[in-house]
Design brief:
The structure holds two protein chains of two kinds. By secondary structure, chain A is mainly alpha-helical. Chain A has eleven helices and two strands. Chain B is an all-alpha fold. Classes of the chains: A mainly alpha, B mainly alpha.
Chain lengths: 279, 126
């Protein structure tokens, strides 16, 4: 296969990943690693570097769109970024000590987990009990506008637990080159009881910063190849922009189920290949 | 008052992200196109990991290679711009906190920036 053919096929694959990722809200990053390793037999270290760059592109691209809606909470984001960025650096360091098959198995597990999480019902744990002292000291409580423009206040809970979970999400993100948005949303929804609209947009904001922390380590380590990153970044970016347009018009439940099935198969295949030491 | 301020800063930051992504995507696309003009017939070699050449693993090396007309270095520069975009977002959020005289969050932002700088300059990748 010539480099031109290779680049064009990769561009098409990344476009599809970005499109499906944004239509389903799972992010294209989750499929980039299996696409590159299983689909194109690319070394997982190059795949991790490339995926991180793609994650930054989609996160920054869509965060720009979200912010105007006024849902994201910049204080929650900044406070938790202390946890995610330090975790990401730890993860990136760990990656050089772990065998690649182990990383492949772990990536498979996290991919399966993301698929599982996306099946869950979106349910807010909104409660106004302002008893968390840390949340008050850190000024994390806030409000967001509902569909009538009314301000709905919310209180943040279990700050320490959420911080710990975020650190874990950062390590996973740095180790595997994924956005680990699913882990971030779990920390914010289930542990800290931040309303869904706020947690989704705030988490998206944080994903880019987290990925930038480990991407710079991977860049110096030589994991980020310009020729490989070029079609993946451009494809994912254009794909997710198209996805965001379509999203406003169409209902996407069948697409969602299709994507979840695809992700599940890819996750299982990553684990299978890892167990057989093929990666 | 606090929220109004936040909102304006956040809208500025959203434009910053959009500019950063647009700029880096343009650099990557244009230099990538030029690269393919000359290397369309090459054989891809990503099955085995070799690691990038030292030219492409530090900003200094990339800039140096760009001056020598290395097209790959131009693509890599676009990627570096993309990585720098969220870092710039963190950097500029400090303005909002300074305007609000929020010492706690000025410190937290500096900590996040410090961690990002460790990633960039410590040579942990080495």
């Amino acid at each position: 296969m010539s480099l031109l053919t290779f680049t064009l096929i990769l561009l098409a694959g990344a476009l599809l990943a970005g499109l499906l990722g944004s239509l389903t809200g799972l992010g294209g990053g989750v499929v980039i690693i299996p696409l590159l390793t299983i689909g194109f037999h690319i070394d997982i270290r190059y795949a991790i570097g490339t995926s991180l760059v793609a994650v930054i592109a989609t996160s920054s691209g869509s965060a720009a769109a979200y912010v105007k809606e006024g849902f994201s909470n910049i204080r929650i984001a900044m406070f938790l970024e202390v946890a995610t960025t330090s975790g990401a650096i730890v993860g990136a360091i760990l990656a050089s000590y772990l065998p690649t098959y182990f990383i492949a198995i772990l990536a498979g597990i996290v991919i399966l987990y993301s698929a599982l999480i996306s099946l869950r019902k979106k349910q807010d744990h909104l409660d106004m009990d302002q008893s968390s002292k840390l949340a008050r000291i850190l000024k994390l409580n806030g409000d967001f506008p509902d569909e009538h423009g009314r301000k709905i206040p919310y209180a943040v809970h279990h700050v320490a637990g959420g911080y710990g979970m975020m650190m874990f999400a950062g390590i996973i993100s740095g180790l595997l080159g994924l956005g680990s948005g699913s882990l971030k949303v779990v920390a914010m929804d289930n542990i800290m009881h931040i309303p869904f609209k706020v947690s989704t947009t705030t988490s998206n904001f944080m994903i880019g910063v987290t990925a930038a922390a480990s991407a710079s380590v991977y860049l110096t380590r030589g994991y980020i190849d310009p020729v490989l990153s070029m079609p993946v970044v451009l494809g994912v970016l254009v794909g997710s922009m198209i996805g965001a347009r379509i999203l406003m018009k169409a209902t996407t439940s069948w697409l969602r189920i299709l994507f979840i099935v695809v992700i599940t198969v890819l996750g299982l295949e990553m684990i299978y290949n890892g167990v057989l030491h093929k990666i | 008052m606090k929220r109004i301020n936040d909102q304006r800063i956040e809208i500025f930051l959203s434009y910053l992200l959009r500019w950063g992504v647009t700029l880096s995507a343009t650099v990557v696309a244009v230099s990538g196109f030029l690269f393919l003009l000359y290397h369309a017939g090459d054989t891809p070699h990503f099955h085995t990991f070799r690691g990038e050449h030292a030219d492409l693993t530090s900003l200094q090396g990339i800039l140096h290679a760009m001056l020598q007309g290395n097209i790959k270095a131009f693509i890599q520069f676009g990627i570096v711009l993309l990585i720098a975009t969220p870092v710039a977002r963190v950097f500029f959020s400090i303005i909002g906190f300074i305007l609000e005289k929020d010492v706690l969050y000025i410190v937290l932002t500096l900590i996040v920036l410090g961690i990002l700088m460790i990633g960039i300059f410590s040579g942990l990748g080495g």
